[in-house]
Amino acid sequence: MKLTKILLASTSLTLAAGLVQAQEMANDMTLVSWGGAYQSSQQNAYVAPYLEANPDVTAVWDESSAEAVAKLRAMNEAGNITWDLVDVVASDAIRLCDEGLAMEYDPDELLAPGDDGTPASDDFGDLIVSDCFIPQIVYSTTFGYRTDMVGDTPPTKICDVFDLETYPGKRSLEKRPINNMEWALLCDGVAKDEVYDVLGTPEGQERALAKLDTIKDEVIWWSAGADTPQLLADGEIVMGSTYNGRLFSVIEEQDQPVAMLWDAQVFDLDGWIIPAGLPEDRLARVKDFVRFATDTQRLADQAKYISYGPARASSAPLVGEHAELGIKMAPHMPTDPENAKNTFLYNYEFWADYRDDIDAKFQAWLAK
Amino acid sequence: MVALTPISRTPVSFYVPVVAAAGAFAGLLVGTAQGQSLLGLVGGAVALAIIALVITQLMDNEKASRWGLTLLMLVGGFMIGGLPGGVIGGLFGWFFGWFTFWLFEGRYRATVPPYLTPGQVLWHYGFRVICGAIFIFLITPILVVMPLSFNAEDFFTFTPEMLRFDPDGYSLKHYRDFFTSSDWQQALRNSILIAPMATLLSVSFGTLAAIGLSQPHVPFRRAIMAILISPMIVPLIISAAGMYFFYSRIGLQGTYLGVVLAHAALGIPFVIITVTATLVGFDTSLTRAAANMGANPVTTFFRVQMPLILPGVISGGLFAFITSFDEVVVVLFVGSAGQKTLPWQMFTGLREQISPTILAVATILVVISIALLTVVELLRRRSERLRGMSPG
């Protein structure tokens, strides 16, 4: 029954998109996200309320954000775009926009103004880093450590990661040069505002790798955001980097003996892109959904479920308490002044220019 | 056990070093778990050598020594590692008590033919140990998953509570999560829908192809066979990418039908191979006899040939079912989020959030697989008994 319905629906969609659907908006959406706690925060904060307000609409999640760029390329080549809205990090959004795979949009037309009347382009401000990127949250990559494995002097500075004498044991780092190279230079005595100048030179890259070399034997490399929380819970590592929301979940929701090390956390952005070339009716539905899902209240609601900062300035005052634990969320936000004393913003231009080159060097160094 | 060879006690210079070597291995395992491999290695060897000497030379009573050793190790293990330590210690004690006397009394020689050289005896037992070790390496990862799926925490970790056998350390919440989460239930429904349909298609087409290709007059038999079997040989990712672009163009990508067809294509080679193998033993004069008695080819197939090649068809079908049920690469390409199957859900779940719900699902799937294989085996035995093919 259901199968035939779906078969019919999909064949009719592909054969004659405009013919069958009488109304202007499609009723099925495929949303692409990261899975886990982040996706459930999206589900709770705006997908479920939207579906409640529009009972005819169904939304399906696809946890493919990690390979969104490759999959969108393939879909484009096959001429068969099956996704309606894709959650990606800002750097992927920039790439997709450059390749023409994501749709450019006008912020003030597509997105709702803030609840104080600020136009969307001002409310999001600088966070709209690409013409295709619809920002949702600010997150950070930072360190967590086992409180029961560091003795009486818990680490307070990023350079404690490189201090094997005071904090012996394994640490986990992401298996890519981004962030690790910056942290290494910072702890090798490079001033914060010169990090990218130094990293732009071959000598600087060698220097960063040499610093990483000092802890290489004690590093477990991770590639999925869930790895470090698991390793911390196992007591397999003393400290490790991951996304701050994952650490929040380990500390507050799972009650593990873990604490945050906010020093030199690296800010990054995550948001939606709309794939280029959607049929009219699906585009209309997605636009309607995005307008709802990125308004001031909805973005503030998301912070009830996960400790990522809303991308709208007007949402910040509305951030309240955790939906289940009832604790105040503001002190757990990466943007909280107490946590953001020393921060880095992911440098999109630098990494866009140098990524391939430094990636190759980093991988060669890893294999040594 | 029939004694083939008269046995006698062995010299100290033989059994003590062997027991010490086994002790060193056990000590290595225990020591590594504590982070001190070398100490465990040496300690295990020395301790077991002394124990072997004491219980064989100073005490006469075999039964008492073995019980005493088991009890001693049990208590010792309990003091060091609590209840699990006690269990492991007790098992070690029982094993080494038995092992020492087995060697000391020369019992290992009793069940092998008398003409074997010492080297052949060593190989006789070495071979069994190797087989056992392979078995353990294959099975342990599957068994470890099962207790972990009852973890009360959201990590793949044996918590201290679990190791103490504290009921608070265990919970069914991951099973509850599986049965209440709409994502998992949708994935289960998709798998249960897709796998049988793909199996049905594979079995029908595969059996027909195998029968056709076993006819001697079919031209290019080898070439056709090679093409049909190619999905099994070509790397899955290549087939998947090819199917993705082809199915996208004809509107099958992201539909149930597309996934079913793709999985059927993957399952067909298994059916062809197993059915072809059973057809080798099929006596073609039976079909001629049936034709002689007036049966048309279709009747002949269903009444004569099919019952005889059924075991091959069933095992081919089982392989096809498991292929579809376990498959993740092709469905990631050919399916869309609406056709998310269990392996797909497990794959994303493992990558994005390491949740023991995956272990709960794995445990359920293992139980289902065991049940399925048992049922098929019982049915096979029953049908053989009914047909009088087996003496059982």
Output the keywords.
heterodimer, A: about 375 residues, alpha/beta, D-Maltodextrin-Binding Protein, domain 2, 2 domains, 10-stranded mixed sheet, about 40% helix, about 15% strand, globular, B: about 400 residues, mainly alpha, MetI-like fold
Q: Specify the overall morphology of chain B.
A: extended
The CATH superfamily of the largest domain in chain A is known as Periplasmic binding protein-like II
What value does the Rg of chain B take, in angstroms? 29 Å
Question: Roughly what is the average pLDDT of chain A, rounded to an integer?
Answer: 88
Tally of domains of chain B: 2
Oligomeric nature of the chains = heterodimer
Number of helices of chain A: 15
Q: What order do the helices and strands of chain A follow?
A: HHEHEHEHHHEEHHHEHEHEHHEEH
Identify the CATH architecture of the largest domain in chain A. 3-Layer(aba) Sandwich
The CATH homologous superfamily of the largest domain in chain B is called MetI-like
* Whole-angstrom Rg of chain A: 22 Å
How is this structure best described in words?
Chain B: Residues 188-376 form the ABC transmembrane type-1 domain. Chain B: Its main location: membrane. Chain B: One of its GO terms (cellular component) is plasma membrane. Chain B: InterPro entries: MetI-like, MetI-like_sf. The complex is a heterodimer of chains A (368) and B (392). In chain A, helix 3 packs antiparallel against helix 14. In chain A, strands 1, 2, 3, 4, 5, 6, 7, 8, 9 and 10 form a ten-stranded mixed β-sheet that branches. Chain A is built from 15 helices and ten strands. In chain A, strand 1, helix 3 and strand 2 form a beta-alpha-beta unit. Chain A has helices at 2-15, 17-20, 36-53, 68-78, 90-98, 107-110, 120-124, 180-187, 195-199, 202-213, 227-234, 244-253, 280-293, 296-302, 348-367, and strands at residues 28-32, 58-62, 85-89, 134-146, 171-174, 219-222, 239-243, 258-273, 309-310, 343-345. Classes of the chains: A alpha/beta (368), B mainly alpha (392). Chain A binds chain B through residues 3, 6-7, 10-11, 14-15, 30, 32, 34-37, 39, 60-64, 66, 74-75, 77-80, 82, 224-227, 229-230, 233-234, 254, and chain B through 153-157, 183, 193, 244-245, 248-249, 251, 253-257, 336-338, 340, 348-349, 351-354.
